[in-house]
Amino acid sequence: MFELREPEEEDESSDNIKPKEKHTPDVGEKTTEPLETPSDDSNPSEPASDSASESSEVPSAAGEESSETSSATAATTPVDPSPEKEMSSGEAADVDLLPPGWQEFMMFGRITKEFLEDQRFCSHYKEGVFSCNDLIHLLEELLVFARLWNEEGPETWFMPSVLRHISASDMEKRCSSAGGLVVDFTDGGPQSGVFCSLMSHVLSPENHSPYSWKLHLSSQEPSCLYRDCIQFEVPKYPGSVTFVDRYEYFEVHVFTSKMWEKELWGHVRKAVFGGIETVDETLGYSENKPRPAIVCPRTHTDRPHPAYIQDKEWICTSDTNQFGDLTTQFLWNQTTCIKDLFSVCSELVGVAHKWKKVGLALRLDPDLLDRIEAEKNDIKNNLLETLKEWLKKSYDTESFGDPSWKLLVDAVAHPFGGEDRALAMEIAAKYNVPAPQ
C-alpha cells in the first residue's frame, strides 16, 4: 500500500503560492505535465517574495503610463484652480446645450425655422418621411403655431401655450372686469386648449379675417404677452384688443376711439366667435358652444361671473341667495345695470330743463323731487341730484327693477317725462338696448 503524504516544505497559504508561468507546448509535446515537488532545501518564503515583486511591477508600469498621460493632458489643458470659474464654465456648458433662440422662445413664444432645424432636434426628423417643414405644417394645422407677419428678418411663428401666466395683480391693472365682451359657454366653461388655439387662429394670416392682427408692441417688445392674457392690435384701427382667459369664460376688451368703437367691436365679435367655431372643428369639440355675455353686474358672490341674454332678457345662473349655499336664477327686464353717475348725467344734458319730469318717469317720489327743487340750484345740479337719488335706488326697485339704461331710455322718451324720443333712440343705439316703448 502506498502512503500518501503531503510535502512538509509546501505551504498552501495563498500568500506563498508561486504563480505558474503559462507554458505553450510544442508540436507533439504532451499537454499534461507532472506536478513539480519542491526540494527539501527550497525556501517557502522565496516564491512569495518573487510573486510580490512580479505583481508589484504591473501596477508600477500602469502607474507610469497613467502619470505620463496625466502629464501630457496637463501640458495641453490649462488648469484653473478657482471653483467659481469652474462652476461658471459648467453653466456655460449647460447654456451651450440649448439651441439658439431658446430664450426668445420661452419668454415671447416666438420660434424660427433655424431654431427647429438645430442639430439638437435632428433626431426627430427622418429624411424623406418627416422634415422640419412637415412639423411646422402640422402644428399650424392644429392651431399650435401661428405664422407672424414679418416683413423683415427670418420667418417666425408664435406659440402661445409656452408663455408664463399673468399674476392676479397685473391682471387687475390691465383689465377691468366690467365693460368688456364675455364669451360664456353652455356647459360651464371652455374645453382644454381652446384659448391658446383661438389666439393662434386670430393671429394667423389664414384666419379669413378682412384685417390682419398683430401682437401689440411697446418698444419692439409685446406689452402684454401671457398664457392667459394677450394684447393685439388691428393696424387699421387705433388702440388695442385684449383677450383674457378667466378659465370659466373669456373676456375681450377693446380700447379705441369713439369714432371706431362700433366698427371695431363688430369686427372683433365676428373674429372671436368665428374663430372659436374653427377651433372646435380643429380640436374635435362638438359640445359646449360659446355665447355672448357680460360680467354680471348683479352679483352676490365675491367672484365675477357671466350673465347672458335669453329670450331678450338677461339671465344669471351663478348668483346665490343670502345664505350663500343655494343657487337661484335671476331674470330682469333690463339690459345693463349702471353705476356711473356722471356718464348718465352727460347723456341727459339735452333734457336737463325737464329734470323733474324725468325724475317722475324714473318713479322717484314727488316729495323727494320737491325737496331737490326747494334747494334752488341750477337745472344741471337738479338733474345731477335727481339721477343720484335714482342710482341710490330711492324708489320701488321690486316693482320697476334696478337702475338700467333701458329704464333711462324709456324715461327720456316718455310723453310725461323727457319727451325726447330722438335722444332716447340715440342712447338706446349707443348702449345696445331695445328702443323706447
From TrEMBL:
Biased composition (Low complexity): 40-77
Region ranges (Disordered): 1-96
Biased composition (Basic and acidic residues): 15-33
InterPro entries named in the record: DEATH-like_dom_sf (IPR011029), Death_dom (IPR000488)
Protein's UniProt name: Death domain-containing protein
Domain spans labelled Death: 354-394
Gene Ontology BP term (one): signal transduction
Sequence ranges of Acidic residues compositional bias: 1-14
Organism the protein comes from: Geodia barretti (Barrett's horny sponge)
